[in-house]
Task: inverse folding
């Protein structure tokens, strides 16, 4: 069954005339007649009674009419939906991000994106950097935002430096001093992230580079949990600055400088996409928003959008 047959059927049913249906469809009357006859053969029932100049629906025609209308409406709605996706009005963006980025960086950015594109559906998956990159390579997400990585199939752009800081409870002796050595910090009960986390290896190696083996009191898989443990006096921790801004402002945690680190305590964060992929408008728009938020001149999607993106039906050949 073809759409052209359904269109002819609905026009004849509406006008009660093959000639007026032909005019409405900009076709010849024989063409409309041929479409109706083909539809009737396919259905196995006559749809119209033809008596002289009079054309009326048969019982089968009456039964078929509402279904034909719904079918054409569904096709039109589908076409409209494709146009909306093409222009970036609807669609989805699948984002993978490491847990700290998803929790402390993306909420404000996603709020702005939702204000710009309220009908775009966001799917955000928070996981370890390794799992997020695996998901990107598997095609499970459009965009990954994690620590910078190198992979032949991935194009990456630096977003910002994820600075880390030592935090202690207000009553801890370090809080009053404000600055300590690596060795002094390493002798305190230390709260680490679980060993699969990139933060664990980064922080542990910071100590090992200066010959200090820190006392690991606990391994945790959540920054929020770690902060509460530090506040409770169960140990001290090195955490991303973005994750403790609220606690530092309220005074429930204190920031302490480690003065003899060989290099700054930080992790480079980037946005990653698969190389040589075309981006639908919603994905392109989110990447451009990210670029604007972090003052990046380079964007992935400026020249790699689907050929018909942003063009109307009248513009397509």
Result:
């Amino acid at each position: 069954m073809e759409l052209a047959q359904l269109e002819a059927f609905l026009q004849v049913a509406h006008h009660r005339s093959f000639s007026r249906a032909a005019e409405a469809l900009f076709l010849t009357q024989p063409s409309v007649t041929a479409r109706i006859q083909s539809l009737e053969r396919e259905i196995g029932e006559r749809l119209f009674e033809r008596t002289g100049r009079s054309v009326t629906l048969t019982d089968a025609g009456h039964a078929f009419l509402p279904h034909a209308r719904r079918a054409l409406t569904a096709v039109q709605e589908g076409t409209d939906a494709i146009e909306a996706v093409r222009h970036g009005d609807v669609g989805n963006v699948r984002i993978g991000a490491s847990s700290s980025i998803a929790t402390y960086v993306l909420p404000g950015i996603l709020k702005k994106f939702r204000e710009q594109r309220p009908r775009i559906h966001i799917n955000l998956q928070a996981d370890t950097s390794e799992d997020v990159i695996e998901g990107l390579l598997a095609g499970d997400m459009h965009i990954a935002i994690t620590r910078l990585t190198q992979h032949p199939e991935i194009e990456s752009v630096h977003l910002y430096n994820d600075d880390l800081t030592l935090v202690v409870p207000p009553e801890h002796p370090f809080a009053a001093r404000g600055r300590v050595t690596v060795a002094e910090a390493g002798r305190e009960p230390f709260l680490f992230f679980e060993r699969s986390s990139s933060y664990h290896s980064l922080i542990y190696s910071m100590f090992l580079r200066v010959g200090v083996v820190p006392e690991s009191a606990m391994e945790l898989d959540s920054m929020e949990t770690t902060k509460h443990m530090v506040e409770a006096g169960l140990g001290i921790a090195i955490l991303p600055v973005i994750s403790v801004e609220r606690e530092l402002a309220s005074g429930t945690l204190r920031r302490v400088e480690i003065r003899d680190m060989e290099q700054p305590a930080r992790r480079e964060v980037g946005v990653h996409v698969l190389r040589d992929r075309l981006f639908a408008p919603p994905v392109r728009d989110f990447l451009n928003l990210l670029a604007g938020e972090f003052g990046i001149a380079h964007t992935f999607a400026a020249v790699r959008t689907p050929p018909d993106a942003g063009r109307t039906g009248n513009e397509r050949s």
Observations:
- The radius of gyration is 32 Å.
